[in-house]
Amino acid sequence: MDSALKTMIANMPEKTGKSLEDWHKVLSKQGFEKHGQAVKFLKAEHAVSHGFANTIVALFFQKDSSAEDLVEAQYKGKESLYPIYLALIDFVKTLGAEVNIVPKKTSVSIVRKRQFILIKPATKSRLDLGFKFNNRPNGERLGDSGPFGTMCSHRVILQGLEEVDDELKTWIREAFEEA
Are residues 127 and 39 part of one domain? Predict the structure, then answer.
């Protein structure tokens, strides 16, 4: 487990009033089948911040799978994209201990106070990197959110490791600072 995620879990009782295990008991009684429904419930009914709610729910739905298993399954048949994923993860880890890496079934959320990027192997040859910016125009490379809808405000399509360049890292850092 990532050290930032361990820290978030350790801080959970102080910040949310319950441990991760206690939150999982609460969710078990609700019978949610969708991630978004459970996040909305925790935020509305228990005043849990989005970052903690997203982490609690992601870990709840993946409790039968390790984070590594979830990521491995995402890149099965898409192995050529895995080095891009690793480069992105290596970079976001340099942003500080506040970064939480939350693998889900089909994507990996990168969270500070809220999700600021989303990494998704979209096809065998394309990785979609979603950004959550507060107010930024689209550009040639930094396009609209595409299939991410309202989860992200922008998207960058990555097909090669060389595309994890200084420009992309600057956008990731800026999204982190806004989160």
Answer: no
